[in-house]
Amino acid sequence: MKKAFKFGLFILLVVTINSASAQGTKLPELLIRLDDIGMNHSVNMAAKAVAETGMPVSVSIQFACPWYQEAVAILKNYPNVCVGIHLTLTAEWKYYRWGPVLGPSAVPSLVDSLGYFHSSDRAFEHGHYKLDEVEKELSAQIERALHSGIKITYVDPHMGVALSTPELRALTEKLARKYHLAISTLSNVTYYGETYKEMWGEPIATKKSAFMDYVEHHLNPDRPNLMVIHAATPSPEMDAMIDENSRLMSDANGNSIVSQHRQTELNMILSPDFTSLNGKKFELTNYAQLLKGKDLSVLKATKVE
Q1: What share of the chain is helix, strand, coil (3-state, %, to 5)?
Q2: How far apart are CA 245 and CA 120, in angstroms?
Q3: Calpha distance 181→203 (Å, rounded)
Q4: Residues 74 and 47: beta-carbon distance below 8 Å
Q5: What is the tens place of the pLDDT at every residue in 227-276?
Q6: Residue 258: C-alpha distances to residues 48, 156, 161 (Å)
Q7: Distance between CA atoms of residues 143 and 297, nearest Å
Q8: Residue 213: CB partners within 8 Å, gap ≥ 6?
């Protein structure tokens, strides 16, 4: 009888410990951020497809680009989507260019001889930008966003430019404080402890498998995990997009494969292989949820590990 009683206590203890352990287990937080929204119709359609799933996601709109109004009109309908401003100081596509919200004459140090933003971060730097003109232009982009009728939560830098030097970082932090906005993580600097990962440079053939391996096995359980996605639906306009900064976006014959890259990234986050893991391997969240209760006036940059 004593042995049976002790065995029963042992089983009860094991069950209790396992139950407590299960209740105390916290799944890693996964932030999905879609970049370059508003760039063209195809990326807007990708954002819509993701928004329609109901998943909590963050999207960064380029308010200097021609299609931002369509992006705003679409995303107003999806409360699961948190919107940020993809602060834009470069225009990287051959034949498809954009320039400052203020116009080239207002910020001449930010544009090339045709009045468009420079095509790369290096060209931007060599253009001898004036910091006061950067402030004027980024302020105009933020003002446009805030007056668009959609709630704005954060800013982040297109191609990393607005956080690329100490002076530009200080300026972006100044504007974030002024407009009560957060700053989303870049590859080497974080403000809210996020890790950083993107699939942009992963070959098309291995993109999904690398993505799935990462979200299943390599998320940090103690910090928010940011995954940056560049998505688009297939279309003639995407087929014609030529990235002037990267050979990774062209095949061996020099033909653009940007559309295939972006369609692959869209497909992988819409795939049941991924969506079925929410609540099992990770908890999807967005910046609005992550920042709840935080003082946005406190901006402390730390290095991404």
Answers
A1: 40, 20, 40
A2: 7
A3: 34
A4: yes
A5: 999 999 999 999 999 999 988 899 989 899 999 999 999 999 999 999 99
A6: 19, 22, 21
A7: 18
A8: none
Angle separating helix axes 258-270 and 204-217, nearest 10 degrees = 30
The answer to whether 94 touches 71, Cβ cutoff 8 Å, is: no
Domains of the chain plus CATH, in order, are: 26-303 (3.20.20.370)
Cα–Cα distances (Å) from 199 to 12, 41, 71, 185, in that order, read: 46, 21, 23, 15
Q: What is the mean pLDDT of residues 58-77?
A: 98
Q: How many CA within 13 A on the CB side of residue 192? A: 24
Rg from Cα positions in the chain: 22
Burial of 3 (0-12, 13-18, 19+ CB in 10 A): exposed
103 conformational bin, left if phi > 0, alpha if psi -120 to 50, beta if neither: left
Task: Please identify which residue in the block is written with the tokens 């030097």.
Answer: 165
- Residue 259 contacts residue 235 (beta carbons within 8 Å): yes
110: its two tokens: 């930010």
CA–CA distances in Å: residue 240 to residues 18, 104, 208, 262, 278: 56, 26, 24, 13, 35
Distances (CA, A) of 87 to 101, 137, 139, 190, 225: 11, 9, 10, 16, 21
* 195-198 vs 189-190, strand pairing mode: unpaired
What's the pLDDT tens digit per position in 155-214?
999 999 999 999 999 999 999 999 999 999 988 899 999 999 999 999 999 999 999 999
Q: Is the separation of the CB atoms in 270 and 277 below 8 Å?
A: no
Question: How far, in Å, CA of 273 to CA of 267, rounded?
Answer: 10
Whole-angstrom distance, CA of residue 187 vs CA of residue 208: 20
